Amino acid sequence: MEFCFYLITDRKLVPKGKTLEHALEAAFAAGVKGVLLREKDLPDSELVPLARRVRDLALRYKARMLVSARPDIAAMVGADGAHLASGLPASDIEAARKLLGDERYIAVSTHSLEEALKAEDGGADFITFGPVFSTPSKEKYGKPAGLGALEEVCRKMKIPVFAVGGIKTGNVADVLELGAFGIAAISAVFGAADQARAANEIMDVIRSYRMGRCV
User: Could you tell me if residue 145 is inside a domain?
Assistant: First the structure.
């Protein structure tokens, strides 16, 4: 893996007067090297050109860019991979792999140890696990999994685990200490008034644990 901070987009959180691309560029400039384009409400006529713009921006900063739920669009725009939803059959991971090839990432969202192991067995390159902490974007999944569940998943998985859900500067160290390879975040950066500062603060914590690797 080449990144430990996996930034998940939500253009609706970007402060007024700024675009998603402006916010992303600020994060990339701060050192973020992984982004998931997750704008599921957009029609293909808008999502594809946005994906191309984000791909170009990521290339400029030598960052990795994945597309949520759409391996077809990931392949179309030359993204670095696709991120699939939880609970999908292994055949969906296999289909994404066939479309994207072995050189690109296949990631899977997971919310339990069972889902995590299933994703690993199905051939995922890495997973996100959560929500670890309470967060509005993950309320539909019920009560947060908590640090204990994250520790168990990290201990039993062979592929990288990214903690997601309520991740903020103040708890990044907690999840890394439990074995998480990295963190995934949305509002911690896109909901901040200063995206560059927010991203840099998280990157500083990650750098202290990873000693310069993956960042």
Answer: yes
Q: CA-to-CA distance for 162 and 88, rounded, in angstroms?
A: 19
Distance CA 97, CA 91 (A): 10
Residue 215 lies in a domain: no
Domain assignment present for residue 75? The answer is yes
pLDDT in the model for residue 215: 54
CA angle 109, 190, 180 (to 5 degrees): 40
Q: Is residue 152 part of a domain?
A: yes
Question: 201: domain range?
Answer: 5-210
Strands, E, within the chain: which ranges?
5-8, 34-37, 64-68, 81-84, 105-110, 126-129, 161-164, 182-185
Contact 32, 203 (CB under 8 A): yes
Tell which residue, 73, 83, 45, 98, has the closest CA to residue 186: 83
Q: What is the C-alpha separation between 80 and 174, in angstroms, rounded?
A: 29
In whole angstroms, give the CA distance from residue 69 to residue 38. 8
pLDDT in tens, 52-99: 999 999 999 999 999 999 999 999 999 999 999 999 999 999 999 999
Query: What's the total number of domains in the chain?
Result: 1
Question: 74-90 in b/e burial notation, b at 16+ Cβ within 10 A?
Answer: bbebebbbbbbebebee
pLDDT tens, 7-26?
999 999 999 999 999 999 99
Say which CATH number the domain at 195 has.
3.20.20.70
